Amino acid sequence: MKDSYFHQGLRSKLVSTLRQKGIKDERILSALMHIPRHLFLDSAFAKWAYTDVAFPIDSDQTISQPYTVAFQTELLDLKGTEKVLEIGTGSGFQACVLSYLGTKVYTIERQEKLFHKTNKLLNNLGYGRIRTLLGDGYKGSQRFAPFDRILVTCGAPFVPQDLLDQLKIGGIMVIPLGEGDIQRMIRIIKVSPTQYERKDFGAFKFVPLLEGINRVKP
Asked: What is the pLDDT along the chain (218 residues), one digit of tens a residue?
């Protein structure tokens, strides 16, 4: 499947929709205009790729709706020089948005099958500079810490302490918090090694953040 003027036209309409919904950062809108979302979906869903909805992908995961991707990215307040840790690689679309904005992206996926599929896709699309990691999102990545920003793209029942420890002083974490079908979008600013400022940005729906690594059986 390739990108085309037809797809670009659909992306333009999607960007207009997101702007009407309140997304203000033109850099993020530009990312969504340039990154071909249909290439991150199974062919059965490709014709609906530029509607503002989430879709299922491999391993019982989802690709978030474009508004959610844009909203979470906006909350990160990126300047383009940050080192960002993403928890939940999924399709890789969100990681590409972060990379498009100039950040150094490290992204963790616990589903081994999905990890390999997405890693191959990112390389094929020219996003090989994104560092993909197979691991437990609750533990983050001590090897590459600390991070200026941490973005969690799945619903967590609590804020993992390992992620807080891997966030720089002055850094920002965006995480959907809550058990069940609905979470609250929380932005956390690390003020000191033990002090944090939190703000609630409303209700969203994500797949759950699970512990461990789901490895492919031989």
From this structure: 688 889 999 999 999 999 999 999 999 999 999 999 999 998 888 889 999 999 999 888 999 999 999 999 999 999 999 999 999 999 999 999 999 999 999 999 999 999 999 999 999 999 999 999 999 999 999 999 999 999 999 999 999 999 999 999 999 999 999 988 899 999 999 999 999 999 999 999 999 999 999 998 77
Give the total residue count for the chain. Answer: 218
Task: Give the C-alpha separation, 187 to 202, whole Å.
Answer: 11
The domains located in the chain, with CATH, are: 53-204 (3.40.50.150)
Residue type at position 182:
I
How far is the CA of 150 from the CAs of 19, 116, 122, 156, in angstroms?
Answer: 24, 22, 20, 13
- Contact criterion met (CB below 8 Å) for 109 and 116: no
The model's pTM is 0.96
Name the residues annotated as catalytic.
Answer: 64
What whole-number distance in Å separates Cα of residue 12 and Cα of residue 17? 9
Secondary structure class of 196 (helix, strand, coil): strand
Long-range contacts of 188-193 (CB under 8 A, 24+ apart): 188/159, 188/164, 190/164, 193/169
User: Comparing C-alpha atoms, which of 207, 174, 201 is closest to residue 73?
Assistant: 174
